[in-house]
Design a protein that fits this description.
Layout: H1 6-11, H2 15-23, H3 29-47, E1 50-51, H4 56-71, E2 83-84, H5 114-121, E3 125-126, E4 129-130, E5 142-143, E6 147-148, H6 164-171, E7 178-182, H7 188-193, E8 197-200, E9 221-226, H8 229-239, H9 257-260, E10 270-273, H10 287-300, E11 304-307, H11 314-338, H12 340-343, H13 348-359, H14 362-381, E12 388-392, E13 408-409, E14 412-413, H15 425-430, E15 434-441, E16 447-453, H16 459-473
Helix pairs in contact: 3-4, 10-16, 11-13, 11-14
């Protein structure tokens, strides 16, 4: 290792190497905790990625307990002694869960979401939360509770969202890996903006519970963020797997495969490049050239790439998405809107989603569901000719952090607060696994990302292709200037 201090040596370890060093007692859990806390103290003030830090005396007690367990031959799992900071959207027992909203600024939750329960049981130590936009709405991480999270590579720029705090924390080695969630690119956009990997898993791969809508929750998923694919697979192996409290979770997955079966010869793999979807998606200048350069690395890995086209009205897809998203959000949050005092605390985008959702008729919802089904059949048909599809992860480079959201791309006005993120909708609406992988840097030195989209429930294959691509491209090895 070439870092300048023992603390730097520890935080420079990838998650796989860190886990091995802890398990073999090469380094202690107390040493790991101290190294990460010192690094966070140095780096986090510049980016505001980790919030609600926990009492350090309590954290040291937990780390000491982890060391005692190892001395007695007991390991809780691959995350034993790992500092982690659950995203501030889903509940964590004994920690504040604000969802970025002043309505919940003092909300101490009593239960763990299943994904956090699993991470805790695997030995993770929860040191704080990672920042998220209010209710996770929008692809830019800012809120009135904790403020704005800034990009890992250029602090004047957006970190993306809604898992912006998680992506920045991983990129800047304040966490070895991190959890996130994704409805409309919330794992993928921040991964692209910060040169890390973010994986939108197939719904059901990672249990999404507890929740009052476990039978309807088909859009939001939990998943991992990491600096490389083996680290991503390590965390996913803990997160994934059936849970009876989440009836749509899957029994067919073998979670250990995400950590142990990533190496695969991808030669002969057929890839379809969807690009800007025949001009439908406006792109910031320089992005398409950046993507074009990245595509060559799939060919280096032995894959073939052809242009892919889908014969489908993409405005029809977008309108169906708008209705189903508003329906989902309003169904959960309408009580806040109906309370006059709480309504005043909602950001305009939340009010807009709720009001749209409340106006929808049964016929509107039924039509959106049918349009979604038609979209699935259209994109699924592409897998007759291709093994995987590629799409941009974002239509812009990281933008000014002082903006609320990009209001225009390449001269085209955005008609909603999230239209600039339309590139992430195709995978979400088809319930397909989608990995955002680093795609290099644009003319101004800002990161970009590509979505690797797999067929239905093809999560493992997506990671296998992502690993082959990463080895060929080397983009993920780029370090932020903040790290020196």
């Amino acid at each position: 290792m070439t870092a300048s201090s023992p603390d730097d040596d520890i935080v420079s370890l990838d998650a796989i190497a860190l886990s091995q060093a802890i398990q073999t007692r090469e380094i202690s859990c107390v040493e790991v905790l101290n190294a990460y806390l010192a690094h966070i103290d140095r780096i986090n003030p510049a980016v505001n990625a980790i919030v609600a830090m926990q009492d350090r005396a309590v954290l040291h007690t937990l780390a000491t307990e982890r060391d005692t367990q190892l001395s007695q031959g007991e390991s809780l799992g691959p995350l034993h002694g790992f500092p982690q900071a659950p995203k501030d959207i889903l509940p964590v027992a004994g920690m504040v869960t604000t969802k970025g909203s002043p309505i919940y600024a003092n909300e101490i939750t009593r239960v763990d979401a299943v994904v956090f329960e699993r991470m805790r049981k695997a030995g993770a130590i929860f040191i704080g939360r990672t920042n998220s936009p209010e209710f996770g709405l929008g692809g830019h991480t800012y809120n009135p509770v904790y403020g704005t999270t800034r990009n890992a590579f250029e602090q004047s720029r957006s970190a993306g969202g809604s898992s912006g705090g998680a992506a920045v924390s991983v990129a800047l080695r304040m966490l070895p890996c991190a959890d996130g969630s994704d409805m409309m690119g919330s794992l993928r956009t921040p991964a692209a903006f910060n040169n890390v990997f973010g994986f939108r898993t197939t719904p059901g791969c990672v249990p999404y519970a507890p929740s009052d809508d476990v039978f309807f929750q088909q859009f939001s998923v939990a998943g991992p963020i990491a600096r490389n694919i083996p680290d991503l697979g390590l965390l996913l192996s803990v997160q994934a797997g059936f849970d009876a409290r989440a009836p749509l979770s899957r029994k067919s997955d073998k979670p250990a495969d995400f950590a142990n079966a990533l190496d695969r010869d991808m030669r002969g793999t057929r890839i379809g490049w969807l690009g800007d979807m025949n001009g439908h998606l406006p792109m910031e200048a320089g992005l398409m050239d950046t993507y074009a350069s990245a595509l060559h690395h799939f060919e280096t890995a032995g894959c073939s790439i052809e242009t892919a086209r889908i014969d489908f009205d993409l405005d029809r897809l977008w309108n169906a998405w708008l209705d189903l998203r508003s329906l989902t959000f309003s169904g959960t949050n309408a009580p806040l809107y109906r309370d006059a005092a709480k309504r005043k605390l909602l950001k305009p985008e939340a009010v807009w989603e709720i009001e749209r959702g409340l106006k929808l008729s049964g016929e509107d919802v039924s039509r959106a569901i049918r349009d979604r089904a038609a979209w699935y059949q259209a994109i699924n048909a592409l897998f007759d000719n291709f093994d995987y599809l590629l799409l941009p992860s974002a239509q812009v480079f990281p933008f000014d952090a002082e903006l609320d959201w990009p209001h225009a791309i390449a001269g085209r006005e955005m008609d909603t607060y999230h239209r600039w993120m339309e590139a992430v909708v195709p995978a979400t609406m088809a319930s397909l696994p989608a990995l955002s992988a680093p795609a290099g840097f644009g003319p101004a030195g800002l990161p970009a990302g590509l979505q690797i989209i797999g067929p239905t429930q093809g999560d493992l294959g997506v990671l296998q292709l992502g690993l082959a691509y990463d080895r060929a491209s080397g983009f993920s090895s780029a370090r932020s200037p903040l790290l020196g």
